[in-house]
């Protein structure tokens, strides 16, 4: 078994015999083929690096999971190195490596092309003898020698000696039939230079000669599996290869712990196992890439936890759905990468290094998914714990960014998220239905409220749930529209389908339309809401006016409760006067109602709408002891149904208070009229009693003062207060676009009336004064009445006396007897004695009244209301009171435009 | 001299043993004779890539011949 010096051809032939197991004659084809291959493929295409080869061998062994064998091999290799017998260790090892077969893999059957190749007889002419003659020459030397000799450089190892021993220089000519084992050592004995030249000549084309004579796959794939194998396998020393890292990273992308990279719960990050040996750059790369896994986990945790939460609501669910979509895209990418990795692992040979997965490639490919995931994770963080409109606001807030990619992503999520809200909105403004089980919509409905308070209390805005892309004004309008529809349905019993109210376009039902709406919030959305608002409100007002005569009722209130219908009120008062003078406890409602009916029938009120007259009624207020009928009488107006929305209970209460005040003022007017009537009537009669003239004069003066006062008050109330406010109210109501406007206008009207009629809290003192003044007037009336009564009585007695005297004179007797005359004189004296008493009483009354009026005027001056101040001018137009009251002088002067500096 | 030659021979034998062991480890399918031929060829400077491809094809050819023989026979 010595390494004898057989020629390579011989060796090759015996190899062929050995491998194929046939005799020499039968392997002729194979032998020729082998020669050709070896001749054409002279130079090794890879570097002669022994260490590399041994590494590769080890890796291959490890790849086959034979760790102990790898250790054994290392030992053997050391031994080999130690022995130093082999000179071309590298070659041998490389040969052994390339002949390695994985026991796990079945032998690849690439029998087809080769068998055909071998089956073909090699054409004889192609292998002419001279060709063969020269060929073996080229085969004679190893590449090393050729290079060295070709370059003419320094001596290679054993150059001289190797020429003889090594090369297949002694290969001779072979005939086709069989190799003649007689090599012709052409080189032997020949000078080097000749062979050098020929060798050079052969050296050049051999390298460039394509291995076309050979079947293609044998040469090229030889280098690459070695390269890819080195990447994939783990070293026997335990250092992790990039390929396994890539596999790990792909698991980490999904949030699953890999072999080397695991989730560290304390630090909340992905950490590489510290036991693993890894180069710094790979460590860095994998850290960067595992960020994706962390982001993925965050998003996934959120969607998973939220999907379990039942009270999360539709908006939240659509948010989770949007996140899911994004995650699906991400998973798709991951599956592509996985399949790529799988392909690589299975096909060891065919893939070139360009398309394989490395960490750097992953880094580049995952750049965009990382950006998206980062945005989503930030969104998830921001939206923790929010739901409904708040969530939509949060997402919308995130969309305000300059980065167009981020904006596009957020827009997409926002369109999905806001779809439920917009859907809810559509249903609300077109159908009036609120289908909001999770309390996400910004309109809230209070189920406890009954239909009579539907307009005011039932629906309200949930301010926190208004998305930030819907303005407050739009939200209010939306609330109003739905409220109107519900009002129509429930209170007005109007069941017209909403299609008739507004031209409904049902296109806004899919997320795409929602997205479009969102893009054009200022334009299309606003238009939509405005259109719905206008139509619905107009319809509502039409219904109210047509079917429920809202405006008529408003006017009726004015006429009856605010004493607008003068003739009716006057007549009523006339009729009621005797009744109301009685104490309150003796009054019966049905009596009074009867009187009311009479009054209605007798005046213009009878031409009113039957609806209105139906509602007019008498109400008796609570009776306090000592009340007369005047104090407890009140008119009433019944409201129900939709009108009660405008005329609420508080409004009716206000109306009644105002009525009371106005009624009282009217009564004063009435009283004074009576007084004046009395005065006019009795003035002539009492001319004959000169002692009364002073008293009567006083009465007249006081009466005219009072008349003036009341006159001005009445003027003020009727014109300044009632008419002006009413005018304002009427214009507003005519111009009103929806029911809310009417309600507001009405309330303003009532407020201003109450304020100006001194019925509100600020003017309590004024009211008190006024009441006392009114009381004085009544007092005066009674005083005057008693005065007149006594005066008239006296008068009638005197007249009787006169009559008697005349009669007696006519009968021829003394007109007056002495006793009669004495009696008469006594009576007259008595009467005259009562006159000063009356006079003083009257004086007292006058003074008291005047002081009251002065105080009233002072209070008026200081009141904040302008019209009241003007009232004081009117009341004191000739400065009559000012002359008497220093306080008035000062205050009146101030307000009459004199500059403060002058005072 | 004889000892040197003997030593040489021993060394050579040892080397061959080692190489055989390695070959067995790597599951190359080469028996001792083929291996020695290969080693000799490599020592003489033959390109191992080409040699390995030759051996592979020889094997395949023999396989195919065998199968065809089996079919026909």
UniProtKB/TrEMBL annotation, chain A:
The keyword Cytoplasm applies. InterPro entries: GCP, GCP_C, GCP_C_sf, GCP_N. Residues 210-239 are annotated as: Disordered. The keyword ATP-binding does not apply. Residues 550-881 form the Gamma tubulin complex component C-terminal domain. It is found in: Cytoplasm, Cytoskeleton, Microtubule organizing center, Centrosome. It comes from the Eukaryota. GO terms for biological process: cytoplasmic microtubule organization; meiotic cell cycle; microtubule nucleation; mitotic cell cycle; spindle assembly. One of its GO terms (molecular function) is microtubule minus-end binding. Pfam families: GCP_C_terminal (PF04130), GCP_N_terminal (PF17681). Keywords: Cytoplasm, Cytoskeleton, Microtubule. Belongs to the TUBGCP family. This is Gamma-tubulin complex component. It comes from Knipowitschia caucasica (Caucasian dwarf goby).
TrEMBL record, chain B:
This is Mitotic-spindle organizing protein 1. One of its GO terms (cellular component) is interphase microtubule organizing center. Belongs to the MOZART1 family. One of its GO terms (biological process) is mitotic spindle assembly. Keywords: Cytoplasm, Cytoskeleton. Pfam families: MOZART1. It is found in: Cytoplasm, Cytoskeleton, Microtubule organizing center. InterPro entries: MZT1.
